[in-house]
Each structure stands twice: as structure tokens, then as C-alpha cells.
């Protein structure tokens, strides 16, 4: 019992610090929580001081991955804003529809759905959220909408990585992975009839939602129906295909005002849009279009580029004595292994993490396309550097905390917490399995890592209580996806990109509601599977 209490105290303390009336900013709350877990590991769990130090190093270095993605997204966002492309994109979207619900569904739902299918890594919010802010929507509310919307496609994000790689340690055959994908897609599809509606309520009033309800459901189904159908025979492309089809259909529905509130078009605005040259619109959209193309080309296994960017065959090896070993692969994967002589390691996929490619690459090409001046380029990079300083501290704290929570293998605080959940619920575990997946995503910032961490324990629980293990693993997958709504890393990332400060607790208190409802829905639906 004491193990359970010690394991859960940091979680409770962190949530309290970030959601209390005068909430602590994440760059204070997360390092403090990491310190507490480190002390528990040292003085209660008896962890070796060298192992603790190695995990501090690995956790600190791990922050390079999310912060480089955030920096890349901000660079692109500032480039689009400073060059005036953002204004052109806004005018084009308004020409498709001036209806706010339509704009939110096209960009916040369908467009983000497709981007998640191609890339993952938090890029949907990084790309879609700034576009919505550019349309005039409030940044804080956009952040909450983006987090909640980006849940349904996540089990098949980055070309199915949470499914095929997330459960790679369980030695499942192709048929089992496909079944998990089928179950996950069905659970997500049912939940999707409700969750995007809640996300919209963060920005527009219920009257607007009611008046556009048919359009909303058609836009949702335009993504989820092909998503569900594609999942019947493939677990890599459902989100990418569903998002692409849904985006096309959503734009057409909005363009022809189908299922939407009847409105009187402003003739002057329409005339102004007609005068805008097609070439100008294409030029303004070119960075975003180029970004999508590069993401798709580098993520689809069959094209071969993905394998090149993940080539781990060593190019250089450096022995750093007692510090460990440093290696650089042919694909410039930097790996620091045997840190301080322990089994702890860290790696950064320089060319595969969506930072240098595609974000920085697209920014450099955009400088040429728009003919940016030296002063404009300096402004873009200066503003980006200023924005990422404090989030970097928060992310270092978060990732050190995660490393500490996972120390100890089967006896780690995170595993102890998971087993405590299952012991309490027994044969009713299927109603709670998704929340364990969400807990993993809350800490790790990744549905894939959540599946890697809890896949084994979920399978074990299912077998012990007599539940179908593939169904429970699908609930784990869905849980990791819905955990994106409250994931600390994602909240810090989207807040940083949108220039929001010290609102992490405010966001969590609101996004946790649809996350809890998501779990209830998929738990009930699982009874019928």
C-alpha cells in the first residue's frame, strides 16, 4: 500500500500545482515534481545514485526532440505571418466560407486529421492552430480545440506508428495488429460523433453548433468513415487517407453551404476574393503544401526515404570513458549509450524528427520564395529563440520526471500505479483500460510511448481477468490517443507556438472533461465488440 501512495503522490501533487487557483507555471511545477520523484527513488525505492544521474542526463537530452519540433513550427509560423502569406490564406479560407464552424472543422478537424496521419509528433496542432489564430480565433481557445480535436486519428498517426511500433514488444502477428487497428478505429469513430462537438464549444456558442450540426456531423463522417473502412485491411494509412478524403469533402460541403446555417453573403467580400490572383493564393499556401508533401514522402515506408532517414548503421563511434559511448549513424542519428556506465541511453534522429526536415527546410525555401529581407529573416529567428527558452525548462523537467517514474522496471512508480488500477477494478477493467493509456500519454507526451510502456501490463491484466487481450490493447491504444488532450508536452508545445504563457493548468482543467467522456464512450462501446 505504501508503494502505491509513494508512486501516486507526485502525480497528485503535479496536478494540484498546475490546476490550483494561483497555479504554478509548468517550468516550476514540472522540475519540482521531478525533484520529488528523484528523492523518492533515492531514499525510498533505493535507486543507485549513478542510475539517477544517468536518467537526469537522458531526460535533459530527450527535451531536444520536442523543443526542436516546437522551434521548427514557430519558425514556419513566423515566416508565414511576417511575409503576409497568413493574410492571403485567411482571405482564401474566408472565400470558401465565412462560417466560423466551417473554418474550425476544415482546419481544426479535417486538415489536422490528415497531418496527424502523415506525421504525428504534435505537428497537427503546430500547423493547424496558428492558421486558426490567423483567422481571428482566440489563441487560448484554439489551443484547447486543437488538443481535443487531435485525438481520433492518433492511433494511426505518423503512418500507424502507435500501433505497429507501440506494440512491437509484444510479439504480435500481423493479424493481431490488424485486429487491434480495427477495434481502435471503431472505438474512435463512435467517440468522434461527440468529441469534436465539445471541442467546438470551446470557441463557438451552442446555438451556432446547433445551427450547423448537420455540417459538423457530415464533416466528421467524411473523415471517420473512410478511416474506419481503411482500417479493415491496413493499420498504417487510415488517418492519412481518412483525413485527405475528409478535408476535400469538408471544403466542398462548406463551399456549397451544405448542412450549414443559411447566411447572406457579403457581395463586396466575394468580389474582393475574385480579384485575388490564383498564383498569389498558391504562393501563400506553398510553405504549407510543401510541408505536407515532404511529411508524406518521408513517412510512407514503401517509398524508401523513411528507411534512409532512420538508417542506424554507425558512421562514427566515440568512447567517452566513464561518461559512456557516443555514436553518429549514416542518417545522422546521434546516440549516447551506456550513460555513466548504466543501461540508460538517448538518441536523436536528426533527419527524421520533424524539425530540420521538414520545418527548417521549408522555412529556408520560403525565404527564397518570398524574397525575405535580412531584417525579416533575423526577426523570424529572434522571435523563435525568445519563445522557446522557458518551455525548454518545462520540457526538461517533464522528461526527467518521466525517466524517474519509469525507473525500476516492473516495480517502477508508473507500473505500480497501473497495477493498482487493475487490482481495484478486476473484471470491469475494460471500462478503465483506456485511462491507463491516457496516463501514459499524459506523462510521456506520446501515444506510442504509452503503448510501449503499458502494452505488456494491459495484456497481462486481460489474461488474468479473462478479457479479450486484443480488445484491451485496442483500448490502450485509444487511451494513448485521448491522452493527447491532457498531455503536458503537447500543451506546452501548442501554448508556446501560439504565444500563450502560464495557462497549462487552465487548459488541463478543461480538456480533461472530454478526455474522461471519451473513456466512458469507448468503455461502453467495447461491450458490444
Identify the notable features of this structure and list them briefly.
single chain; 529 residues; mainly alpha; four-stranded antiparallel β-sheet
Commentary on this structure:
The chain is mostly helical and 529 residues long. It contains 25 helices and four strands. Strands 1-2-3-4 form a four-stranded antiparallel sheet. β2 and β3 form a beta hairpin. α6 crosses α9 and α6 runs parallel beside α13. 49% of the residues are buried. About 2% of the residues have low confidence.
Concise synopsis of the structure shown:
The chain has 529 residues and is mainly α. The protein has 25 helices and four strands.
Q: For the largest beta sheet, what order do the strands appear in spatially?
A: 1-2-3-4
- This entry's quaternary arrangement is single chain
Nearest-integer average pLDDT: 91
The total strand number stands at 4
For the biggest sheet, the summary is: 4 strands, antiparallel
Global outline = globular
Structural class: mainly alpha
Strand content: under 5%
H and E string = HHHHHHHHHHHHHHHHHEEEEHHHHHHHH
Helical run tally = 25
Helix content: 55-70%
Alpha carbon gap, first and last residue? 35 Å
Q: Any idea what the radius of gyration is?
A: 23 Å
Amino acid at each position: 500500500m505504501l508503494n502505491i501512495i509513494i508512486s501516486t503522490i507526485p502525480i497528485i501533487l503535479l496536478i494540484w500545482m498546475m490546476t490550483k487557483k494561483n497555479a504554478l507555471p509548468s517550468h516550476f511545477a514540472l522540475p519540482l515534481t521531478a525533484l520529488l520523484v528523484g528523492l523518492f527513488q533515492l531514499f525510498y525505492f533505493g535507486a543507485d545514485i549513478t542510475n539517477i544521474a544517468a536518467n537526469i542526463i537522458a531526460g535533459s537530452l530527450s527535451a531536444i526532440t520536442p523543443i526542436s519540433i516546437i522551434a521548427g513550427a514557430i519558425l514556419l509560423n513566423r515566416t508565414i505571418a511576417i511575409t503576409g502569406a497568413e493574410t492571403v490564406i485567411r482571405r482564401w479560407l474566408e472565400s470558401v466560407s465565412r462560417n466560423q464552424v466551417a473554418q474550425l472543422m476544415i482546419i481544426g478537424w479535417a486538415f489536422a486529421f490528415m497531418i496527424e496521419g502523415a506525421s504525428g509528433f504534435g505537428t497537427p496542432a503546430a500547423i493547424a492552430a496558428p492558421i486558426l489564430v490567423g483567422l481571428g480565433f482566440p489563441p487560448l481557445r484554439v489551443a484547447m480545440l486543437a488538443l481535443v480535436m487531435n485525438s481520433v486519428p492518433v492511433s494511426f498517426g505518423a503512418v500507424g506508428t502507435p500501433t505497429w511500433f507501440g506494440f512491437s514488444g509484444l510479439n504480435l502477428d500481423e493479424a493481431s495488429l490488424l485486429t487491434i487497428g480495427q477495434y481502435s478505429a471503431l472505438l474512435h469513430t463512435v467517440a468522434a460523433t461527440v468529441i469534436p462537438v465539445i471541442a467546438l464549444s470551446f470557441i463557438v456558442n451552442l446555438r451556432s453548433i446547433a445551427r450547423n450540426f448537420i455540417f459538423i456531423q457530415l464533416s466528421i463522417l467524411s473523415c471517420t468513415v473512410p478511416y474506419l473502412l481503411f482500417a479493415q485491411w491496413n493499420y498504417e494509412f487510415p488517418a492519412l487517407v481518412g483525413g485527405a478524403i475528409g478535408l476535400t469533402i469538408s471544403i466542398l460541403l462548406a463551399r456549397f453551404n451544405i448542412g450549414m446555417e443559411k447566411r447572406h453573403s457579403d457581395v463586396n467580400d466575394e468580389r474582393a476574393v475574385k480579384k485575388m490572383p490564383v498564383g498569389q493564393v498558391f504562393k501563400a499556401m506553398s510553405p504549407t503544401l510543401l510541408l505536407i508533401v515532404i511529411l508524406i514522402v518521408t513517412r510512407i515506408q514503401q517509398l524508401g526515404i523513411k528507411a534512409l532517414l532512420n538508417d542506424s548503421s554507425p558512421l562514427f563511434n566515440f568512447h567517452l570513458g566513464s561518461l559512456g559511448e557516443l555514436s553518429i549513424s549514416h542518417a545522422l542519428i546521434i546516440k549516447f549509450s551506456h550513460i555513466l556506465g548504466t543501461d540508460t541511453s538517448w538518441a536523436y534522429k536528426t533527419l527524421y524528427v520533424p524539425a530540420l526536415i521538414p520545418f527548417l527546410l521549408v522555412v529556408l525555401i520560403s525565404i527564397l520564395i518570398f524574397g525575405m529581407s535580412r531584417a525579416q529573416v533575423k526577426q523570424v529567428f529572434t522571435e523563435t529563440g525568445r519563445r522557446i527558452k522557458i518551455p525548454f525548462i518545462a520540457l526538461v523537467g517533464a522528461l526527467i520526471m518521466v525517466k524517474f517514474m519509469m525507473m525500476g522496471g516492473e516495480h517502477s512508480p508508473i507500473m505500480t500505479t497501473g497495477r493498482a488500477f487493475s487490482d481495484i477494478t478486476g473484471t470491469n477493467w475494460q471500462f478503465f483500460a483506456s485511462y491507463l493509456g491516457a496516463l501514459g500519454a499524459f506523462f510521456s507526451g506520446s501515444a506510442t510511448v504509452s503503448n510501449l510502456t503499458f502494452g505488456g501490463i494491459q495484456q497481462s491484466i486481460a489474461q488474468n481477468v479473462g478479457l479479450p487481450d486484443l480488445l484491451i490493447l485496442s483500448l490502450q491504444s485509444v487511451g494513448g490517443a485521448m491522452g493527447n488532450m491532457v498531455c503536458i508536452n503537447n500543451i506546452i508545445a501548442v501554448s508556446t507556438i501560439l504565444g500563450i504563457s502560464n495557462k497549462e493548468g487552465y487548459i488541463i482543467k478543461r480538456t480533461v472533461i472530454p478526455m474522461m467522456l471519451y473513456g466512458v464512450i469507448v468503455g461502453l462501446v467495447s461491450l458490444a465488440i
